[in-house]
């Protein structure tokens, strides 16, 4: 059950309206998870500074069980997410940061329990 949160200081007019859906689809493919389990939040128009500069930028936070726990996995995911984000947002790679968070099944609640028991 991947969770993706994209924060950007781009004005809402500069962000594709269907970005959340496209990111959901891309994440499912990149992470090898069913699209029905991918959760995406897109926040734009934020006050942000990356590398000391407030020029257009973005940060993507990726949390998931089992697929973001190693450097090798994240190196592969990173390349694909960077390709997606540079195309969709029109930003250069140096203005985008990714953060990966491995999760354990007991850290995600669903249907009145945690994923460990589902």
Overview of the molecule:
Its EC number is 4.1.1.84. InterPro entries: Macrophage_inhib_fac, Tautomerase/MIF_sf. It is a single chain. The chain is α/β, with parallel strands linked by helices and 118 residues long. It has one domain: Macrophage Migration Inhibitory Factor. It contains 2 helices and 6 strands; from the N terminus they run βαββαβββ. It has helices spanning 19-31, 71-89; strands at 3-8, 39-43, 58-65, 96-103, 109-110, 113-114. The strands form 2 sheets. A 4-stranded mixed β-sheet has the order 2-1-3-4, with helices on one face. It has a two-stranded antiparallel ribbon with strand order 5-6. β5 and β6 form a beta hairpin. The mean pLDDT is 97.
Secondary structure layout:
Elements (H helix, E strand, L loop, with lengths): L2 E6 L10 H13 L7 E5 L14 E8 L5 H19 L6 E8 L5 E2 L2 E2 L4
Helix pairs in contact: 1-2
- Which strand-content bin applies to the residues? 25-35%
Sheet having the most strands: 4 strands, mixed
Shape: globular
Number of strands: 6
Would you identify the CATH H-level superfamily?
Macrophage Migration Inhibitory Factor
State the end-to-end CA separation: 12 Å
CATH topology: Macrophage Migration Inhibitory Factor
Overall structural class, as computed from helix and strand content, comes to alpha/beta
Oligomer: single chain
In percent, how helical is the residue content? Answer: 25-40%
Query: What's the tally of helices?
Result: 2
Query: In order across it, which strands form the biggest sheet?
Result: 2-1-3-4
Kindly state the mean pLDDT as a whole number? 97
CATH class (first level) name:
Alpha Beta
Label the CATH architecture.
Answer: 2-Layer Sandwich
Strand/helix succession: EHEEHEEE
Backbone CA Rg: 15 Å
Domain module tally: 1
List unreliable stretches of 5+ residues: none
Subunit structure: Homotrimer.
InterPro entries: Macrophage_inhib_fac, Tautomerase/MIF_sf
EC number: 4.1.1.84
Organism: Hymenochirus boettgeri (Congo dwarf clawed frog)
């Amino acid at each position: 059950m991947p969770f993706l949160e994209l924060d950007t200081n781009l004005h809402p007019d500069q962000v594709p309206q269907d970005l959340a859906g496209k990111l959901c689809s891309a994440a499912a493919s990149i992470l090898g998870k069913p699209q029905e389990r991918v959760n995406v939040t897109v926040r734009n128009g934020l006050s942000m500074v990356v590398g000391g500069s407030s020029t257009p930028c973005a940060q993507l936070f990726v949390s998931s069980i089992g697929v973001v726990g190693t450097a090798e996995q994240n190196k592969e995911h990173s390349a694909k997410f960077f390709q997606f984000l540079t195309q969709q947002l029109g930003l250069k790679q140096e203005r985008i940061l990714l953060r990966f968070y491995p999760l354990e099944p007991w850290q995600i609640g669903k249907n009145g329990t945690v994923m460990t028991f589902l």
